[in-house]
Amino acid sequence: MTTTLTSSAPPLGATVEVRRTGPSLPSLVGLEVRKSLSSRSGIAIAASAVVMGPSGLLLAALDAEFGWVAAPMGVVAMMTGLVLLALGVVSTAGEWTHGTVQTTYLLVPRRGLVLAAKSVAVALLGAALAAVSAALSLAVIAAVGVDYLNWDGWVQATVVTLAAGAVFAVIGAGIGAATANTTAALTVLYLFIMGVLPLVRVGKPELGDAVDPAHATMLLAQGMEETRSILILAGWVVVSSVAGWTLTHRRPVQ
Amino acid sequence: MITVSGLTKRYGDRTVVDDVSFTLEPGTVTGFLGPNGAGKTTTMRMMTGLVPASAGVATVDGRSYGELPNPGAVVGTLLDASAVHPGRTGRTHLRLLASAVGVPAARVDEVLHQVGLADAARRRVGGYSLGMRQRLGIAGALLADPPVLMFDEPVNGLDPEGIRWMRDLLRGHAARGGTVLLSSHLLGEVEHTVDRLLVIGDGRIVADGSVTSLLGADGVAVRALQPRALAVALEAAGFHVEREDDGVLVVADASPAEVGAVAAAGGHVLVDLRPVQRGLEDLFFQLTTSPKGNLR
């Protein structure tokens, strides 16, 4: 038997103003940006991404001279991108590691939309952080470089640094979503990009050059092998994003 | 109204939820009972789309959870209190949820006050006790004041005052026309909170009914000045009587009125007469330890 109770209290939802529809993609992107910057790990990664390039240049300047701006900026683009891999990983795999993915999917059950919002959010954040890093790095190069610095290609190097921030963050988000485990995703990515691929490039340079996103970033920033570099980076974005969506969209949230 | 029809979950050859069906009506608190591993949590996760069902459907007002335009505004869920980023403060966590659900940020302070966490709002969740995390999870579920609440083991970690608060919260929600599904292994808590019980064992619903019907009278316990004489009289009247060591007579399938009438007719002096009720615990173990037990 069912007992129906009544009360003089206000009816449910009468006193709370609630949006009737789900969040739009732009509002989800904003939410994901706030999530990324609301934890200490996210803030630490963001700070590292900003200071890694310029501080690396300062250290390098102790025993090297900068004559052509695009060369050290290529290294900055690569280093900043590698740091921002972690931002993407934490935004997706971190949710599985901490269990917060449960709340995320309870409020927005469309998993593809959530992954898209995360990818756009970390791309925007990555580009913004890389822009700050690029600006600081250019200032460092200008300060410690030789008297007659060669500024040829500095615009492309700067743009590539911003793009690398976005691209590597999206790659991290895709791999993080695919693995659903922060430690595993970071270990696999850094071991592969910084350990395996350099070795491959020593043994089989053609193969290594064809798949290494860090090397491709550095060359692209310096205006070399542009088409191939863009294809390599685009390939990484597509493969990681497809892997992330494929493995996420029906994965049980336990 | 929530309708669950034939919900089934298989992992390989193992069936953890088997053809579970029930409906939940507005204005009621339904207790979802079962031992660990019986399938309660998996059922609730399938209802909310977190775990894909192998078969069956669950709908809220005719739509699956994933088809609801803004699910958080319709169903408030607490499935795992630990599913919160430990590095965020309670307030930050709720503000993120408020943005996703689409309620004003000011609502966050209201629910923090409602669940008694206003003073801890600026502390990181990593420093919260289990009871505080439960309250934070409940606060998140209440943000939109949704018509449906679905809580999985919400009283874990709560102190007695917190358990009473929870009971009042859920009863109040039902009194306002809300629908509540509450799973718990704390049988006494469920007994005092719910209108209806769903008992699950080995992945199947083994009992579904009101608390009164499931825990209804199972005979009469009677004490008399001369119990032996009363027992003879009751047996002569066709009742089956069991004699307890302490002198109490338990009369199966009888009402207090029937036993009282036999006693009055024979001039027996009674010192105690009351219906014997099955405890929830007895019912629970009877149903969930017997694979064929089914009181639906």
TrEMBL record, chain A:
Membrane-spanning intervals of the chain: 43-62, 68-90, 120-142, 154-175, 182-200, 229-248
Highest taxon, organism lineage: Bacteria
Protein keywords: Membrane, Transmembrane, Transmembrane helix
Originating species: Blastococcus aurantiacus
Protein name in UniProt: ABC-2 family transporter protein
Automatic annotation (TrEMBL), chain B:
Chain coiled-coil ranges: none
SUPFAM superfamilies: P-loop containing nucleoside triphosphate hydrolases
Pfam families registered for this protein in UniProt: ABC_tran (PF00005)
PROSITE patterns: ABC_TRANSPORTER_1, ABC_TRANSPORTER_2
MF-aspect GO terms: ATP binding; ATP hydrolysis activity
Keywords in alphabetical order: ATP-binding, Nucleotide-binding, Transport
Domain ABC transporter per the UniProt entry, residue ranges: 2-227
Family per record: Belongs to the ABC transporter superfamily.
PANTHER family: ABC TRANSPORTER, ATP-BINDING PROTEIN
Name of the protein described by the UniProt record: ABC-2 type transport system ATP-binding protein
